[in-house]
Design a protein that fits this description.
Layout (H helix, E strand, L loop, with lengths): L1 H28 L4 H23 L7 H9 L3 H12 L3 E9 L5 H12 L5 E4 L10 H9 L4 E5 L6 H7 L4 E4 L3 E2 L6 E4 L2 E3 L4 E3 L1 H8 L14 E2 L5 E7 H5 L5 H8 L3 E5 L7 E4 L2 E5 H13 L5 E2 L2 H25 L4 H28 L1 E2 L3 H37 L1
Parallel strand pairs: 1-10, 1-11, 2-3, 2-11, 3-4, 14-15
Antiparallel strand pairs: 5-6, 6-9, 7-8, 12-13
Length: 405
């Protein structure tokens, strides 16, 4: 019986609350004509966008917010990449990592000679030899006689080892991780640097071409490309495991054949970098994600500036309507209503659609102007409502004085 009674009284309570809410809304809105609402909405929206533009994307303030966004804050693509990485179905790639941690040059030479007979598609050597050693001649000979190898080089910092190999026709690709903030987050890469006289290709583009992949979709090559940090499953070998006399080379050959081998130090403290999915990722692993992005033509399209500001305009308009409505209808809890409105809009209109677009069609919408606009809008709204209250009060006062006369 208690249960039935609750079922009968619950609708009555909800209906009572709904009636009170409607009555209060009508009472508050009766004090404000409809034209005033739309004037306030349009004015607050335009003022918000104006202040956002002045602070974010103009020379008026020295591009204050734009500089802050580039230097001090992570990009939204970090959130999108991390979410996609965690939710993607794990998949195996055609990339095998060969760790040379603790290996001598002689052991690296032996590993290259063994790999050459296992028919990999290509071998990328992400190692920079800075000082001479007795084993150099044998290592150079092993590299020169393997036409599947691409060597990594740091631009404008070529070592003696690189000069010796270039003279004999070995392919070298540049390694420059593009970082756009003080956090040094590796988000993108340059396929190539185009000069008037020559083209400096990136290590990963050359390696993809060596493996037979096409890279025409990355034209223009001197345009920054975001790395698609998919949920990759990559086979990992150790150099010492490969050259061990008791190793089962037949089984290893099955793991290596037709694969792209990335050789490097997976645990070098000097080669760890911050990425959207890992605070300390080795350079070799980052190359694996870059290479996978190139092989799958997984291009991340970036929304143009005009579209970013159009989205900011639409969101600001909707937010102005909602915030003014709640401010007038619930004047006893307007602060809570305004903040809840902002939070709901950020989640439902900005964050979730942005993540969904990135997951489904690899579109990266830069909602930074929208975030700044929503943050500024609450201040603009308070200022405008205060100004309008003063103006209306003066108008009523003047009207009252004229009536008395």
């Amino acid at each position: 019986m208690t249960s039935n009674k609750n079922k009968q009284t619950s609708p009555g309570l909800l209906q009572g609350l709904w009636r009170k809410t409607r009555a209060k809304t009508r009472e508050n809105f009766s004090q404000h004509p409809l034209w005033e609402l739309w004037v306030d909405v349009i004015t607050v929206t335009l003022l918000t966008l104006l202040f956002t533009w002045l602070l974010f994307d103009s020379d008026f303030s020295g591009n204050l917010f734009g500089t802050a966004a580039e230097i001090d804050t992570p990009e939204l693509i970090d959130l999108y990449s991390a979410s996609a990485h965690q939710t993607d179905v794990p998949r195996y790639s055609n990339i095998t990592l060969l760790s040379i941690d603790g290996c001598s040059r002689q052991e690296v030479t032996t590993a290259l000679e063994i790999l050459n007979g296992m028919e990999p598609r290509a071998i990328g050597v992400d190692v920079v030899f800075q000082y001479p050693a007795e084993e150099d001649d044998a290592l150079i000979n092993a590299i020169v006689h393997n036409d599947k190898i691409v060597m990594a080089t740091i631009p404008y910092n070529g070592s003696y080892f690189e000069h010796a190999l270039r003279e004999q026709g070995t392919s070298f690709g540049s390694v420059v991780f593009n970082t756009s903030s003080r956090y040094d987050v590796v988000r993108s890469f340059l396929p190539a640097v185009l000069n008037e006289t020559d083209t400096t290709w990136s290590f990963d583009i050359l390696l993809a071409r060596k493996a037979g992949a096409t890279t025409g979709c990355f034209v223009p090559y001197d345009k920054q490309q975001y790395i698609a940090y998919s949920n990759l499953m990559m086979d990992t070998l150790n150099c010492l495991e490969l050259i061990d006399p008791s190793a089962d080379l037949t089984a290893i050959a099955e793991r290596v054949k037709d694969k792209i081998i990335l050789m490097g130090d997976l645990n070098a403290l000097t080669d760890l970098h911050r990425t959207p999915i890992d605070a300390n990722m080795s350079g070799v692993m980052i190359h694996a994600y870059m290479l996978d992005t190139i092989l799958r033509h997984d291009i991340i399209s970036v929304s143009p500036d005009w579209l970013n500001w159009l989205i900011a305009l639409i969101v600001c308009f909707v937010s102005s309507v909602a915030m003014l409505y709640f401010k007038w209808a619930y004047d006893d809890a307007e602060g809570l209503a305004l903040r809840v409105t902002q939070l709901v809009l950020m989640i439902l209109v900005v964050v979730l659609p942005g993540v969904a677009c990135f997951w489904l069609c690899r579109w990266y919408f830069d909602f930074t102007p929208t975030f700044f606009a929503l943050a500024i809008q609450a201040v603009v709204l308070d200022i405008w409502v205060g100004i309008m209250a003063i103006v209306l009060h003066l108008i009523r006062s003047l009207h009252s004085k004229k009536s008395k006369k």
